[in-house]
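Predicting holo structure, magnesium ion bound.
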Amino acid sequence: MVRRGRVFSGARPTGRQHLGNYLGAIQNYVKLQDEFQCVYCIVDLHALTTLEDTHLLRGNVHEMALDWLAAGMRPEETIVFVQSHVREVTELHALLSMVTPMGWLMRAPTFKEKVRLHPENVNYGLLGYPVLMTADIILYKADTVPVGEDQLPHLELAREIVRRFHSFFGETFPEPKARLTEIPRVMGLDGVQKMSKSLNNHIELALSPQEVREKVRTAVTDPARMRRKDPGHPEVCNVFSLHRFFNAARVPEIDSACRTAGIGCVDCKNMLADGINEAFAEFRERRADLAARPDYVQDVLADGANRARTIAAATIAEVKEKMGLL
Ligand code: ATP
Ligand code: MG
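Done. Tokens:
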């Protein structure tokens, strides 16, 4: 098969993957394998920027590999690996940091947000996050990056860093472009912030059907609908917006039943939980099979790191030569 270019994406092993990760990114990780050579990375160094419980890291890496493989990654073709296993990325990070103005990083919305939320832990890693992310992508000369909407500012920065590198040292990398899904921003169970592992407002793909039901029950719905008999407003309800993906055929029916108070929020949530459970039934089976074969998963990650290293070493040699180091 002739493939058109290279895809790179990564996710932080800060917990198991959730519906936001799936709808915003993993769907595309899987789909793009048909067209591109894909490189998918469990970015453990990025997790260190905010993770306090580093003893959880090893387990989280394994869980994320299970989620990805069960979702349909094909490790025979696709490179699946752990960021810190390919040390060239830290070298490229250091080299790119020489061409990245501080002002760009300090203006990044994600950096400002992290400073606002955790003023007690503003480390250099947080500031340099977009530089390391740029290194992740361009080390593999990837041109396409499947991500959720929250990552767009980082990708814009990556393109700017690439352009600046080129202005000093000549054309070397493709300018990486984001690839969004049709739902690039899934809201969390709180209904006001994006679904995030670190905000604990998420539904993990690996939950049991009963756990999904319990989680969905905690979701915030239309705040104006206080009592069962009040008519609802589906257009402002986060639970309703998820029906589009998990109960597509029933959306018109659910819409009118909500507006006329024909169903209550509890009924609506139960329908959503049923839809999610059906959508991920096969995923759960595959995940359980993989969980019973931890050596296989470790082998996939070791093989992925070996293949990634070959590409990375060639890029580093080229970059060092251009920068006058070799
Ligand atoms: P953390 O809270 O630790 O940052 P996260 O839930 O934001 O975790 P990431 O590992 O940072 O997840 O993101 C992995 C991928 O999933 C990224 O491409 C990101 O853009 C995408 N993604 C994360 N949350 C959502 C969401 N709510 N909607 C759509 N895409 C998302
Ligand atoms: Mg995130």
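Residues 209-279 form a domain with the Tyrosyl-Transfer RNA Synthetase fold (CATH 1.10.240.10).
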